[in-house]
Write the structure tokens for this entry.
Amino acid sequence: MISVKTPAAIVPLLVASVLVVDGCKVGPNYSRPALDVPGQFRGVAPDLAGQSLAETTWENVFQDETLRALIKEALTNNYDIRIAATRIAQAQAVVGVTRANQFPSVNGSAGVDYQHNSFALNGPTVDSVGIELNYIVDFWGKYRRATEAARAQLLSTTYAKSVVQLTLISSVATAYYQLREFDFQLVISQETVAADQDILKLNTIKYKGGESAITDVYQAQVLLQQAQAQVISSTQAIAQTENQISILLGRNPGPISRGLALTDQPHQAEVPTGLPSALLQRRPDVLASEQSLVAANANVGVAKAAYFPQIALTGQFGAASTAVTSFLQGPATVWSLAGQLAQPLYAGGAITSAYHLAWAQRDQAELQYKQTVQTAFGDVANSLVGYNQSRLFRVKIDEQTRTYKDTADLAVVRFNGGYASMLEVLVTEQQYFDSQLTLAQAWDAEMSNYVSLYQALGGGWQP
């Protein structure tokens, strides 16, 4: 060791700084791959103007105050959301750990060495203190590429949380509409039970008075029993759907509040969708997939840097003395600086294989990104046709239900006047009842497709 002045200890830092500034980053820089983006979504009206549904916040899309409250509770307490938040915290920590490799590590040490032997019964006690600096110069950008990959993974994880959030909003809304469908069916069934009980009483009286046959009583019983069975089925579905929503809210299974009826839920008849190119920035799953590609692209640079020599710098600064009062004075102060260059010569093909692996993973990530984009366009197209056609279907079923009601009412009048049989009443009442149940399902299908379309367009998410 050579004795010098204290400022000389900063030499390693100065040398490292120069090397980092002059260094480069090997490996490919990221550029978004070419994508086949359609001019417009399939199934959308070309002249439809207005604010895109994708730009509307979920609070404005779902205007049922009870549903809004349920969604807010889910966003706060749902376990999938909370787990996704922990993944972001983990990714942030990984960035910190990876980025730390770009900087020197500094370690301090202190010690006391007491020497004693048969020749020196009162051997000296040597006190020492020192600082050691170790630094791997990131000349080829290995650690910078690794940090780039870690940051991209952090973004991907953040976008993934947004995917969970959008999925949760859609799941709560869809389950809520389904719950209101079952409520609708239960009311229909209960009203039908009451009406069928009156028919059964009337037929029983007529049979006992000799005005009708026993078959009329049996037919009325069948009608009543079918409605009673539907009450049981709807009650079961309501309880199970309430349990499903409770779990989404982060609660134990229990009752769920109701707001607007299913038929009163506000929604647009025609939905502006915006430009397909905007979908690349509006869907968090697309952005998450792209950031995974960015990370894989950066990892190619990490693998390529393994071909090049590694430059390591080591610096030490310290003092040693037999007396504390002599620290940092004269010959007690020492420092050293060392540099080392290590070039891989033969690794049995491991470096080349790792490089090929990185490229293969990068190619896979690119294909998955393109697939995600294509799937996004498919989701919008399917949701558009689903919403438009389910709306038309619901309108037709609504018309059909009114027709069946008029037919059933007329059959009852004809039966009471002696111009129709009980069988005619039974058939028309059953048709009307079934059509009412189908109408409830049609309303649910229309609202569920509306939710799916909103989700497919990005769900009002802001990047």
